[in-house]
Amino acid sequence: MIAEIIAVGSEMLTPYRVDTNSLALTAELNKLGVAVAFKTILGDDLQQLTDAARIALRRADIVLFSGGLGPTEDDLTREAVAAVLGVGMTRDASIIESLRERFRKRGIEIRENNLKQADVIDGAEVLPNANGTAPGQWIDTTFEDKRRFLVLLPGPPKELTALYTDQVEQRLRAVVPQVHIAIASLRMAVVPESEVDARTAPIYQQYPDVQTTILSTQGEIQLHFQCSKPTLAEAEARVREVQSRCAQEMGDVVFSENDESPEEVVLHTLAERGLTLAVAESCTGGLLGQRLTSVTGSSGSFLGGAIVYANAMKTALADVPAETIHEHGAVSEEVARALAEGIRRRTTAAYGIGITGIAGPGGATETKPVGLVYVALADAERTECLTLNLSGDRERVRWFASQYALMLLRKHLL
Amino acid sequence: MIAEIIAVGSEMLTPYRVDTNSLALTAELNKLGVAVAFKTILGDDLQQLTDAARIALRRADIVLFSGGLGPTEDDLTREAVAAVLGVGMTRDASIIESLRERFRKRGIEIRENNLKQADVIDGAEVLPNANGTAPGQWIDTTFEDKRRFLVLLPGPPKELTALYTDQVEQRLRAVVPQVHIAIASLRMAVVPESEVDARTAPIYQQYPDVQTTILSTQGEIQLHFQCSKPTLAEAEARVREVQSRCAQEMGDVVFSENDESPEEVVLHTLAERGLTLAVAESCTGGLLGQRLTSVTGSSGSFLGGAIVYANAMKTALADVPAETIHEHGAVSEEVARALAEGIRRRTTAAYGIGITGIAGPGGATETKPVGLVYVALADAERTECLTLNLSGDRERVRWFASQYALMLLRKHLL
């Protein structure tokens, strides 16, 4: 069975907003063994929406709509679905009552247009929405001689996901052929996508029953494996096998087989060993600290550190001798090492990380180009320093600098 | 004229990836007065892709494809477009030559499948791609008695945007009816979307010729105005008028009428006045520093600061007296004030910001719930402190804390 997701709303046709509801819906549908084959995004036009619904019903078994269930004139999903199915709508007394109740509680007068949300397409089941005014609708019908399932969901992400989980998942599970899906992933850092693909494709291509997706995000390459089998044990055995063979091939660049982020991997290892970390960041300006503290419970191992953007701060907050900066420049291996060592001493952490570099677009000199970054790691015994020549814009240089810093520490902890 | 954007690639049908190419394309098309009415996202299936191309050619004047121009068997956009137009393809000798040249330079053997990228749809103009191997194609044709323009663009964002700018923009400009578009925006912070809408709708609804979009992103509400008129002066006059009336209505919560971010506004004002800033961050862990240093040239006003995640760091790096922490707790107004004052003194900055709070999900006590955050701002004369009770998850609490900190400083600088 295949699905189409239709996202309704003119804001998604502006330069400012993409449809993200489809990501959560896709993850859920995949769990049932349903692939999403099409996504359509369109605005609040009844004719266009009706035509799009017809196209979707011809090419997909399950059609999910997100959005267009609100109280305004622009909310036309109900009308379009009724039109394409050639049925009417009935205003539902119990929905009206719950709408009135909702407004009463908030002390707001209900307006006539709100009652529109009580319109139920003939033949539809109402899906109560605990988090908003617009209920969803579920339709199991025959369209041009084929059995089709239509699901109307509200656009706000929290309402949509809760409604899917509470109301839709069980209904779909009852009608889609039962399969068991296992998933697994490998996360790798600071390695080119082309290298990962060249080395792992000969392996994963031996598993035609496993769907393999390679994704490249900033400074990270992920392999996702998915397999559907009559039993979960069979599916899991297959994804585990291809995962483990690819992991073996890629070796050290794999930082997680459990879908952990680089910062999670580093923090968990530090916590296991009772070790602590502090950072002194120049060009990353707090990015590494921000990444580490985005992890719940990071306070167990991450002490803090210094943002040493100005040169005087490198001395004042991380004890870099002014003469080191004067002699080698703020962007130098010597300063990176001094930052790592200085912040470690100052905070009494087990590890100190120092980062200094030229994130660009300005700041380059004849000998020091944009993208030159030094990342140093100090422990009680020694200090190690990476010299990086990163390409790309300011954001990319900074992100990769933080990524290399995490990978340097991870390697050290291995 | 209306456009449809078809994004081709199975990765965009997974739970991991959305189409973002359409955002840049939409911004460019809007500048020409062309609205995007439909977006379709689908995978690498020739029949599905051919059908989708047919649907698009029926409902849109301009159809832009992104992706599916690579060298693999899965890259089928050329084949699908040729099929729907009922024409053939010719392998282009000059493209083959430039492909061979490209591979020679990189010292790689060219493989047979790469030559596929030299296939040109009959009647198409080749759009050379300076940044990759897959050239684009431009087709001006008649489909079912209507004039249609098809644009085939490579999927990698940098190749796509460069190719659009260099090759497509001028071709579209020559064929779309000439209009002049003016845009303007208002950016507001720490105000609910519903309040912005309630207060500005009575104004912008008086401008039916101006398309107004309200967007809510984390801690920020944006109003975007767009107007198309026979002359640019007329269009600009209209968007300026509605922008200025809405700005007047919203008052102080508007932080930019020039599409600047909160961090840009604060840094520019500091730079104008020759003032400096330092931060001491506990629960935000570097996020505020990271936001400030994401702005090019921030080193002029932002000195740096301390990430004081552990209590001992609050004392060691920002001189918060241990007894203040002991007496009031790390999450307290007293500690926020001491952080702001301490980091200011330590760094000799004009302003010091201190942030301490409970980002969650753990860490709450009976009297201090998740979301309780103190943000303090100190200058030479006085220290001001905000008490925030933020809702939402860890990421949201941290982001809003940094947003309130920027807004507190901005208000002070007004």
UniProtKB/TrEMBL annotation, chains A, B:
<dbReference type="InterPro" id="IPR050101">
    <property type="entry name" value="CinA"/>
</dbReference>
<dbReference type="InterPro" id="IPR008136">
    <property type="entry name" value="CinA_C"/>
</dbReference>
<feature type="domain" description="MoaB/Mog">
    <location>
        <begin position="4"/>
        <end position="174"/>
    </location>
</feature>
<dbReference type="InterPro" id="IPR008135">
    <property type="entry name" value="Competence-induced_CinA"/>
</dbReference>
<comment type="similarity">
    <text>Belongs to the CinA family.</text>
</comment>
<protein>
    <recommendedName>
        <fullName>CinA-like protein</fullName>
    </recommendedName>
</protein>
<dbReference type="InterPro" id="IPR036653">
    <property type="entry name" value="CinA-like_C"/>
</dbReference>
<dbReference type="InterPro" id="IPR036425">
    <property type="entry name" value="MoaB/Mog-like_dom_sf"/>
</dbReference>
<dbReference type="Pfam" id="PF00994">
    <property type="entry name" value="MoCF_biosynth"/>
</dbReference>
<dbReference type="Pfam" id="PF02464">
    <property type="entry name" value="CinA"/>
</dbReference>
<dbReference type="InterPro" id="IPR001453">
    <property type="entry name" value="MoaB/Mog_dom"/>
</dbReference>
